[in-house]
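Before relying on records like the one below, remember that each one covers exactly one chain. Contacts with other chains, cofactors or solvent are not represented anywhere in the record.
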Amino acid sequence: MENRSIAFWCGAAAFLVLVFVLTRTIGNEYPFFAGYVILQFVVLAVAWSILGGYAGYVNFGTNAFFGVGVYTAVLLLKAFEAPLLIQIAVAAIVGSLLGLGVGLLTLRMRGIFFSIATIAVAIIIETSVMNWRFVGGAAGIQLQRPPVMPPFDSYVKMLFFVQAVLVVVAIATTRTIQNSRIGRGLQALRDDELAAECMGVPTLRLKLLACVISGALLSAAGAPAALYLQYANPETAFNLNYSVSVLAMSLIGGTSHWIGPVLGAILLGVTQQLLAVTISSEVNVLVLGCMLVLFVVGAPKGILGLLDRIPFRKGKRA
């Protein structure tokens, strides 16, 4: 286990170094503009898997947490001109509190009732923001980016690197949970919650913790989006497409291990960006639906399930 941890952190450091080198050597901003979206979905998919994958509670409210992250950043920027790192940190705190509140209200429900409740929460928050004039209301708000901080020469490149750091934080957090007693408890309640309760597993406490951590990461991922687009409106920030895409990415990659959502997010994210450039961004929803149906029917355990069918791959994941 110790060797695996060393290998993981060495890989994470190498990834961040590579991202930084790319920001210093590539002049064209479009790869970073598109890459930011892919990294953003990696964070969202990994964060979603903490509750939706490990615990088995399918959360359709990803867009609520993402939108809260966006508008927390908008509020801090407009009211206090807070720097980006403060925006992300406060968004994570707000997301964790929202996760706690949503968990206390909904986690006693099970199955489809929980999923419907999370959709209702997203609608309530979006409606509230639409009537909040200070942050632009339904019409949205234009944002002016502050000067870029050295050593970056472009704000988009800086946001790309910041999102890469969030990827490492999200994966490290999820990996730690998976390898801990918390992860084993979440998996036990996913398999049979009643049996887990009979064995003394504190199921409600674990679900609340998963909801808090997941909410913090989801909102933190949304915070930089306001300055990424230089514009925010409720329809975009609370778009249901975030919930559907993240769910599809996690299921396609596989929810049994933290690497599954990463693979699913990269596969679908890259596909969507290529389609947006070559054909049309409207085709993304069609491709997303087709891939989800194919994997649900042909590989219900996702890419990880397909890899497990290869004999020499069994037991190799860390």
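The mean pLDDT is 90.
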